[in-house]
Automatic annotation (TrEMBL):
<feature type="repeat" description="PPR">
    <location>
        <begin position="228"/>
        <end position="258"/>
    </location>
</feature>
<feature type="repeat" description="PPR">
    <location>
        <begin position="382"/>
        <end position="416"/>
    </location>
</feature>
<feature type="repeat" description="PPR">
    <location>
        <begin position="293"/>
        <end position="327"/>
    </location>
</feature>
<feature type="compositionally biased region" description="Pro residues">
    <location>
        <begin position="64"/>
        <end position="74"/>
    </location>
</feature>
<dbReference type="InterPro" id="IPR011990">
    <property type="entry name" value="TPR-like_helical_dom_sf"/>
</dbReference>
<dbReference type="Pfam" id="PF13041">
    <property type="entry name" value="PPR_2"/>
</dbReference>
<feature type="repeat" description="PPR">
    <location>
        <begin position="417"/>
        <end position="451"/>
    </location>
</feature>
<dbReference type="InterPro" id="IPR052308">
    <property type="entry name" value="PPR_domain-containing"/>
</dbReference>
<feature type="compositionally biased region" description="Basic and acidic residues">
    <location>
        <begin position="50"/>
        <end position="63"/>
    </location>
</feature>
<feature type="repeat" description="PPR">
    <location>
        <begin position="193"/>
        <end position="227"/>
    </location>
</feature>
<feature type="region of interest" description="Disordered">
    <location>
        <begin position="42"/>
        <end position="82"/>
    </location>
</feature>
<keyword id="KW-0677">Repeat</keyword>
<dbReference type="Pfam" id="PF01535">
    <property type="entry name" value="PPR"/>
</dbReference>
<feature type="repeat" description="PPR">
    <location>
        <begin position="328"/>
        <end position="362"/>
    </location>
</feature>
<feature type="repeat" description="PPR">
    <location>
        <begin position="157"/>
        <end position="187"/>
    </location>
</feature>
<dbReference type="InterPro" id="IPR002885">
    <property type="entry name" value="PPR_rpt"/>
</dbReference>
<dbReference type="GO" id="GO:0048316">
    <property type="term" value="P:seed development"/>
</dbReference>
Length: 479
């Protein structure tokens, strides 16, 4: 007989006598028939504890609550998590009015919401102020800032202050912008951003206060901000306008030492000045060493194309592959613009063929990684790129070439948009090719493309000249 059974019998026999002698005592007996059963129960309890936390963990301990903010502490602006539910619906409604150009209605909706149950978020208020600024209604933008953030107790964030600062700078009130900057330093629970310093340095330079702009840039660096290429560019441009190239180059060299990410904007500024003042090409070797990424190259190529230096732009484009810098659609877009400006339509077609060519077969040997690296060098054209090419080809009178590009677009599975259809249909209608225009309109209906009323009126008039107005009406009815 096992030891476990002997113990169980002894306990069972002793239990009545113990209960009689000690009625108040509780005698514990073995609850499991085997050690395996006990171990299984222990495992079950552990699993339950892992799934269900103990009750004391569910009770909130008042001592663990964060202390209340001290009296007079600045309140923090809202986060994006507040932009939900009815407040998000209000934001979308205001944005819709702003996009339609009805700024006054958008302002009225946001202002009335301040005293309602669904108050606007700081993001809604910023959108309204920004729209009035972009439409150069500076006084209204300042008034709205004061209404939302000073009178209505909406807490501004750094974006709110930046819009107020740029509004003051663009309206010639730089001292007021500097007062806002000092207010941020003294009262806001956050620091100024790089955008703050960009607006202020630009405003000071334009107000012929470049020394103060340099001091502000130094203050930016002393406060722990990294070197910002746009802030430096504002100062460099100011010294170039003063014909002080020596000081401009000093700041440029300082930027090269400090800046971790550079987008080529200063190169473009120097080049702009060279073209404007007829400087020699010798100065342009000086700018090349800082050209490192695609953003920098795009800035340079764009400026060269803008000033009619297409061959120089192509030369820089050709040098990119040797420096492991891969071009993007923006790069090719600049080349296309340059070729069209010089009437080099065949070169545009070559660019399109180069971008849409089928990739070669992968090698059988050990160059697989190199092959795929080279295959990914070229970007895939999007609808916007195709529309740029089609528009240029139609304006150049090369409709056959435009139809070839259209065929490549369809072959690649790219769906047209309203701009694609309008460019092509206008081109073939002006040639009197109404049957081809009808084909494009059928493609429009097939893809559910919706065009504007002005374009539809143009097509109807062209078709009615040939007594085929009913065809155009049917096609537009199907779209």
């Amino acid at each position: 007989m096992s030891l476990l059974r002997l113990l169980r019998r002894a306990t069972s026999a002793a239990t009545p006598r113990l209960a009689a002698l000690y009625p108040a005592a509780s005698v514990r007996t073995f609850a499991f028939s085997s050690a395996e059963e006990a171990a299984a129960e222990r495992r079950r309890r552990k699993r339950r504890l892992r799934i269900e936390p103990p009750l004391h963990a569910l009770r909130r301990d008042p001592s663990n609550r964060p202390p209340p903010p001290p009296p007079g502490a600045p309140r923090l602006p809202e986060s994006t998590s507040s932009l939900v539910g009815p407040r998000l619906s209000l934001h979308n409604r205001v944005q819709s009015l702003l996009r339609s150009g009805d700024l006054d209605s958008a302002s009225a909706v946001a202002r009335s919401a301040v005293t309602s149950r669904v108050r606007p978020t700081v993001f809604t208020c910023n959108a309204v102020v920004a729209s009035f600024y972009r439409h150069k209604r500076y006084d209204d933008a300042v008034s709205l800032f004061n209404f939302f953030f000073n009178q209505s107790n909406v807490i501004p964030n750094v974006v709110s202050y930046n819009f107020l600062i740029v509004t003051y700078c663009d309206s010639g009130r730089v001292d007021s912008a500097l007062d806002v900057y000092r207010h941020i330093l003294d009262n806001a629970p956050f620091s100024p951003s790089h955008v703050t310093y960009r607006h202020l340095t630009k405003g000071l330079v334009e107000a012929d206060r470049i020394t103060e702009a340099v001091d502000l840039m130094r203050e930016m660096l002393s406060r722990g901000h990294g070197a910002d290429s746009l802030v430096y560019n504002n100062l460099i441009k100011g010294y170039i306008d003063l014909d002080n190239y020596e000081r401009a180059y000093e700041l440029f060299d300082e930027l090269k030492e400090r800046c971790l990410v550079y987008d080529g904007v200063v190169n473009a500024t120097f080049m702009e000045s060279y073209f404007a003042k007829g400087r020699t090409r010798r100065r342009w070797t000086r700018l090349k060493p800082l050209m490192k990424d695609i953003g920098c190259y795009n800035n340079i190529i764009g400026k060269l194309v803008e000033h009619g230096r297409v061959e120089d732009a192509v030369g820089i484009f050709d040098s990119m592959s040797g420096k492991s810098v891969y071009s993007d659609l923006k790069t090719y877009g600049y080349l296309v613009d340059g070729y069209f400006n010089e009437g080099r339509v065949d070169d545009v077609i070559k660019v399109v063929e180069d971008l849409t060519a089928e990739p070669p077969e992968p090698p059988e040997k050990n160059d697989i990684l190199g092959f795929y690296s080279r295959a990914n060098e070229k970007p895939k054209p999007d609808v916007g790129f195709y529309n740029k090419v089609l528009d240029g080809l139609v304006k150049a009178g090369r409709l056959e070439a435009a139809e070839g590009v259209w065929a490549k677009m369809v072959e690649k599975g790219m769906k047209p948009n309203a701009g694609t259809i309008e460019v092509l249909v206008r081109g073939v209608c002006e040639k009197g090719w109404l049957d081809r225009a009808r084909d494009f309109l059928l493609e429009m209906a097939k893809n559910g493309v919706v065009t504007g009323a002005e374009f539809q009126q143009f097509v109807l008039e062209e078709f009615e000249k040939e007594g085929r107005g009913h065809e155009a009406k049917e096609l537009f009815a199907c779209s």
